[in-house]
Structure prediction request, 196 residues.
Amino acid sequence: GDQRIKKIDDRRGSNKNLGIIYNPKICIISRLVKGKGHIELIEYMANLLSKNDEFLKLKLFILGDGPLRNNITELINYYKLEKNIQMLGLVEQEKVIAIINECDFAIHPSTNEGLSISCLQYLASCLPTLPKKYGPSYDVFGANTLYYKDYLSFEKSFLQLTHINKLHSISKNFHKVRHKAKWNKVLDLYASIYKN
Prediction:
């Protein structure tokens, strides 16, 4: 998390495009199954890129596999997004961490899970995340990030996340939340509850 914030600080000082990242690297870590939001997200990305050609160099990395892989690949091809969206399949944990560290932010389009391990990974890495507004995502991120519920809110939040200052703010928020959720602090809290 500290390295991510330093990296964003460095980019803030050197970015000559009014603090906007025109070629963001984005990741999604999720099983490719119904309810995870991949199909809707591909459609949203196609719409976003058709209206905002300054982002035509963005990269979206989809990590994960599942029964919808062929459907998602066909949709990527249908919208001619092969240069923008890469299906990486199942990835070893060390590579997952390397990809998270390389990305500017994550998108979490799922509305079909309890506590998301990928959301916890994003939070632990202080990786700004754009989740779909859904209970469990809010349980992880709280008011510390932007959310979307439909295309218009997706586009608005996405465009805000391409600003370095917004990325910095969310990373700092995640760092504070992450610090509060360290295992030793959680264990101390439970111990104090148990003693009382």
